[in-house]
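pinging the channel bc i need a second pair of eyes. not urgent but kinda urgent?? the chain im working w is below, pasted from the shared doc
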Amino acid sequence: MCDGVRHVFTDLGCLVDDGEPDVADADEIFQVLRAWSFAQERGEDLRLHRDLMKDTVIWNIEQGLTLTGLDVSRAEARRSALRERVRAFLERYEFLVLPVSQVAPFPVDVEWVREINGVKMNTYIDWMATCYAITLTRLPAISVPCGFSTENMPIGLQLMGPQWGEEQVLSAAYAYEQSTEWHTKKPTL
């Protein structure tokens, strides 16, 4: 679906290619920082109300409780290196365009996506890696609609820009939305 809107960007005058920054360690960085955050924010809740918590939340808190200050410090240093790699990439490219997540919205009774195109997801948050990898960089990004799945679920596209490039990102998102009018469309039922 996201690849299908490539022409919109070329029609807007963009040169489009398949370049991508190195985000290979984003999963590990995110897992550590998320677990640490869960432990800090919800550790007491786990102690007092474990019986009321979902297994995935318990798992994330317990992961965080095993971390040391050195683990968190290393993850933050790696996040800085990730940000620098992506920032350098965006010196060569005006934008990075990619899916918001690897899957379309799924039924509420599905706790989490366990496999995508034959690739096993190891944790309950792996299915949203394209979103959290971008969030880790703290660079400006926006989600815009780009269509509907065969099940009529919305599909989002992320536009990410350079450091301090909020105005560029918003302008590109606006130009894209005006060209596609996806923001006005509804799924066929």
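so Residues 1 and 66 are 40 Å apart (CA to CA). and The beta strands are 96-99, 115-116, 119-120, 141-148, 154-160. — does that match what u expected or am i reading it wrong
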